[in-house]
Amino acid sequence: MALQGRSPSTRVKAERRNALLAGYRPLAGAYDEFMAQDGSIRPHWEPFLTEWSALSQDELNQRFGLADRHVHDTGVSYRVHGDIDERDPQAGERAWPLSHVPLVMTGAEWQTIAAGVAQRAQLLASLLDDIYGPGEMVAKGLLPGAVVTGSPDYLRPLHGAPDGGSLQLYAADLGRGPDGRWWVLGDRAQAPSGAGYALENRLALARAFPDLFRTMNIERLATFFQGFRAGLVAKSRRVEPRICLLTPGPLNESYFEQAYLARYLGFLLVEGGDLMMRDGRIHVRTIAGPKRADVIWRRIDGDFSDPLELNARSALGVAGLVQAVRQGHVHVANGLGSGVVEARALMGFMPKLGEQLLGEKLILPNVATWWCGQPRERAAVLDRLDEMSIAPAFRSAGSGLDSDPILAGELPAAERAALRARIEARGMDYVGQEVVRLSTMPVFQNGRLQPHPVTLRVFAAATPDGWKVMPGGFCRISDEPDARAVSMRSGVRSSDVWVTSDTPVEQVSLLPSGDRIAIRRVVGTLPSRAADNLFWLGRYLERTEATLRLVRALLGRLIDADTTNPARPDTVRRLANLLVAWGAAPAAKAATGRGSAARNLTAAKGSPVLAQATSALYDAAEYGSARANVGEARRTASVIRERLSIDAWRLFGDLQRQLTLEPGRQPSEGEVYEVADRALKTLAAFSGLSQENMVRGAGWRFLDIGRRLERGIATCRFARHFAETTAQSDGLDALLDLTDSQITYRSRYMLGASLQPVLDLVMLDPYNPRSVAFQVDRLDIEIAHLPSLTEDGMLEAPRRLVLKLAAECRTSEAGRLDRTSILLFEQLLMGLSSAIADRYFLQNSGPEGSRLTGIA
């Protein structure tokens, strides 16, 4: 965004600069990225500071708002380990803690970091090849065997397997010491996370400061992801491989990032249940049968990847995956056993291993580490225990420590003595590390810049042209002024890393050039799980709409009380009873004492009917309420968020805000009516997005099938309640309101609502987009386009049922419709729903699974 208006004067800029720097002082004994010890600003930060000095506080807040809205609108989130509610996957989500100040680094300094990270990635890759291959490092005494076999991440079934411990993506956690040198604090080779968050940090800050981003010539990130994707493609034996990103699921700490990267890179997001092993190969369960998976980028721990040969308790992996890897039929990145090199116990041996495997000294040394499994090193650690940082040597080593280091000198005497005793008894579970004081960088806080400790995570990818390092990464900033180790927990922020260039940076896209793109119009593979969730997303949204229409129709009649209409009380009663039967509201006698939204709504403050309407709108405890159904829709959408646009995701947030009642509020009839009306408009916007923006592939078809089925079922229920043989015009008017057919009816008939014309319009009219017949016609079209798994020439169950429904709609007459015949339509629709689920969502669980064909 270009600055608006006249540029501030030199004096104003100087005042703003002084205000930003007021009180900024490097911490004693720490290197500061922004300011030298003499108080001068480091030259590569000057463009940044100059730009900020030209902005007023209001303008800065506006820029920050742009970045924060990007995080909010795109739903960038993460979880803290253990902060999970399995009943509500969104309950434990936290907004990504973006810091508005990037870490700025010169291109010259970054070249050293990049060279060191690439070298370390190659070292770990070579070490993994040796560990799962000849084992020369152990045989030569350069690496104790217990460091390998004592690690829970060493997977013996992968020894000798092709790519058993291969490294495709590596991340290094770096910290800068007081002398200005960068040190490796930790290695990430199991399933490195954060690359997607680095990209989101970049998008957010580039949106806030586009001019600054361009004038400082910041290196782009797209080339890194381009190389990473090319590296995975190169591991397949097919020209156009099917690459899957294997996720633990929506309860994982970094699920947002996994879904985001799958969409960004064009990979198929799958869970363990989406995959199956057949004939030594891994296949994806899709609506068109099993489809071969060529490459799997896993984001689950290696030992959880196969319950047959690894961790039998795992519900996340794929039975038979290890066998497929051993036979060379699938490439897994990173290799299933790659986590072994993450052990801190290895860090003390890295310098000698680097000289042996690479013939080079390490460009980036790691923090000094002593593995207590060796007598001399254990004695050294115990002698200097009060000066040491003590950490578990391996993941889940049973050391009694969390994964983060602790400062032994700060423990109470009793705890320090207990720690000493544990190290003496079982030293192999511990390492002692030198305490490194981290460097600091500026954070904007209380209207000025303040120094905070920072660590840097840098990523390297194996590409066809060698190791490529992301020109940036992301940094983690502690709120504690003397932090020794920073982990992504409460009180920690994240920001982008800007690597500057002396020359303009080439604009790079992740897309290849036009002459390298193979034109296609066929939509990619749709896993059965994704189809299932799209189907139910459509149903939950339609249920929400039906509840909202009921609430609006009910309150519209309460507000517009027609005392001359004797049928009005009966219509109100029927609408209220339908909300109760719908599961959206409690019975009238309990309306004042049940549910958070209905609580305290007494007859004196508002009628029981208003309490029921309020509950149906706001009360998540009522499973059929609008609030509950929107929650279910968002939960379902969160599992397939890689298939939904940002605009669609934003609408879920809008709906949840609209359907949230402030504690203690007792809304009036008019307020509840208005909220229901606004929520219906928001739902209409989602319908417009799906109709106008979604490609007409299998995913869209299942979303539409779910909506059509639910709308048809709801219309049948509405008709059964209001279209009796003794129905009065007020009840029929309510039916027309609920099916949004008033305008159509009045344009056709000059008289008031009459039973047979109303029934024909809402049940049998194929030209009315709200009628049952119209839904059946659309279902017929959509189901006809879905893949068939049988080749015997016989119609499958969903097709048979929809044809039967279509025949009933076309041959029925309005004059012969009664509650029994309408119930038959409803039951047929529900039977069709079950047939679709059995056929497309539960493959290989019954007789239908034995007839799957079309393996590709």
From TrEMBL:
Residues 102-477 form the Circularly permuted ATP-grasp type domain. The lineage of its organism: Bacteria, Pseudomonadati, Pseudomonadota, Alphaproteobacteria, Hyphomicrobiales. This is Uncharacterized protein. It comes from the Bacteria. Residues 526-841 form the DUF403 domain. InterPro entries: ATP-dep_Glu-Cys_Ligase-2 (IPR051680), CP_ATPgrasp_2 (IPR025841), DUF403 (IPR007296).
